[in-house]
Amino acid sequence: MMTEAFVNASVTPLESLDMLSPYEVAKLQDKSQGGLYRLLRQCALAVLNCGSELDSTRTVLERFSGFDVQISQKHRGVQLDLINAPASAFVDGRIIQGIREHLFAVLRDLLYVEDEFDKCCDSLQGSAMATNMVFHILRHANALRPHIKPNLMVCWGGHSISRHEYDYTKKVGYELGLRGMNICTGCGPGAMKGPMKGATIAHAKQRIQQARYVGVTEPGIIAAESPNPIVNELIIMPDIEKRLEAFVRLGHGIVVFPGGAGTAEEILYMLGILLREENRDIPFPFIFTGPAGSEAYFDTVDAFIRDTLGERARGLYEIIIDDPHRVAERSRVLLDQVTLHRKAVGESYHYNWQLHIPLQLQRPFEPTHANMAGLCLSRSLPDHELAAQLRCALSGIVAGNVKEPGIRAIEEHGPFELQGEAEVMGALDRLLTAFVEQRRMKINYEEYTPCFRLARPEPAAVN
Question: Considering Cα of 48, then 52, then 56, then 60, what sign does the dihedral take?
Fold first, then answer.
């Protein structure tokens, strides 16, 4: 077994965040329940652990249990003191430049959310408040680029995909990059890294300067999906719901690659938006794609959507198999439609204000056993509401698979139990069983134990 190597080092920012107030430093070092120390340590470790093949937050934290990060203020500004940091983040004793940038992106976003969040939107309520919070975080991170025609494609997909599927994501990214499109992903490995890697070659060929590789994550998942080294804009949203909204508000279209429960959660989130009557006439490219041999994943997801949300939902996306060139061509055509629409209605290019996202999809869902059991999984709900409920079910399964609080809850109380209408539960059973059989739940799929149990309703009594 290889012995882990550790490094102690002091790191300072290059450009931004070169000074903090004593109050901010104290908050970041505060180890109490209300302090930021735990989040800072977890996110900093994830950034330093770039390239990790671990997909369990708990496993990462246990492997690097001796890691610590301290903040001090020197005459030159802020300094991070790293103790027992992963040696892979350093070359010849110096921290890798991209990892250095990511470290201070962590600091920037954690502090901004803590200090400014309530101030920016205190006169707003409900859905408008959440949308404005997302806007302020993205603006503070300098992620909003006005006056540039829509060209940012969001790529969703699994972190534990096969090599064959990973190579395909690179080919799609390459074709997108050749057509001048930038890439936004969840920042991790697998289908989050591949499109960026392909696009870097295409951008170099086209001599595109200042290409964007935007990674959007959140504290609960970042240790399980460490930022890949291609990300040049790292943004940490406070929770999964605001992360998902950031993708939709910032990006101009979405390409979905094969994945697992997390990818299905993202698909259901998007369908919960597109099924709303208010969004019927707003163009938003939504393409599912994978290589030959991966048809089973999209067949499974497509059948699940048909059996739960119906045919209208199936008409909101298109499936393209084994054709990166066509994916990119369709993306380009659909982005042109997005541009024309935004011009016609006076919508900004850099933030999709017009799209209506209901509060049900914005309110943070805590995957406790009670909340999971209390989900309403019935086709008696309007299709967009059922999509939102199913999104929460998949979000809980992701938490139980890879997030430390979810893993701990499963250990203490057993698997999450989901219950609902027989037809919906049957469809959910087929979906999740297929994910397990296709080895899509975790990287170490041979050791996977389901964190969920589906309760079947009792058949109606016959008089």
Answer: negative
Contacts of 157 (CB under 8 A, 6+ apart): 165, 169, 190, 191, 192, 256, 257, 258, 259, 263
The answer to whether the CB of 307 falls within 8 A of the CB of 427 is: yes
Torsion of CA 295, 152, 222, 24, to 10 degrees: -170
In order of 156, 186, 371, 427, the CA distances from 159 in angstroms are 10, 9, 26, 24
- Token digits for 72? 């001090």
pLDDT at position 447 is 67
Q: At residue 7, does pLDDT exceed 80? A: yes
Residues 6+ apart with CB under 8 A from 330: 285, 287, 318, 320
CA 126 to each of CA 121, 234, 391: distance values in angstroms, whole numbers, following the listed order: 10, 27, 20
Tokens encoding 325: 């060139």
Backbone angles phi, psi at 80, to 5 degrees: -100, 125
In the Cβ-directed half-sphere of 69, how many Cα atoms lie within 13 Å? Answer: 28
Domains and CATH numbers, the chain: 6-120 (3.30.1850.10), 146-463 (3.40.50.450)
Contact at 8 Å (CB) between 252 and 348? no
HSE (CB half, 13 Å, CA atoms) of 234?
Answer: 31
Q: pTM of the full predicted structure?
A: 0.91
Q: What letters, b where the CB count within 10 A reaches 16 and e where it falls short, cover 285-294?
A: bbbbbbbeeb
Task: Write out pLDDT tens, residues 230-261.
Answer: 999 999 999 999 999 999 999 999 999 999 99
What is the three-class DSSP state of 31? coil
For residue 2, the model assigns a pLDDT of: 45
CA 327 to CA 462: how far, in whole Å?
Answer: 52
DSSP conformation letters of 64-80: TTT-EEEEEEETTEEEE
Q: 383 is written with which tokens?
A: 């299709």
Long-range contacts of 16-22 (CB under 8 A, 24+ apart): 16/104, 16/108, 17/78, 17/104, 17/107, 17/108, 18/76, 18/77, 18/78, 19/73, 19/77, 19/78, 20/71, 20/73, 20/78, 20/111, 22/73
The full DSSP string for 254-299 is EEE-S--HHHHHHHHHHHHHHTSGGGTTS---EEEEE-TT-HHHHH
**CA distance linking residue 383 with residue 312, whole number of Å:** 9
Residue 77: half-sphere exposure toward Cβ, Cα within 13 Å: 10
| Max CA pair span of the chain | 83
Is the Cβ–Cβ distance between 178 and 148 less than 8 Å?
Answer: no
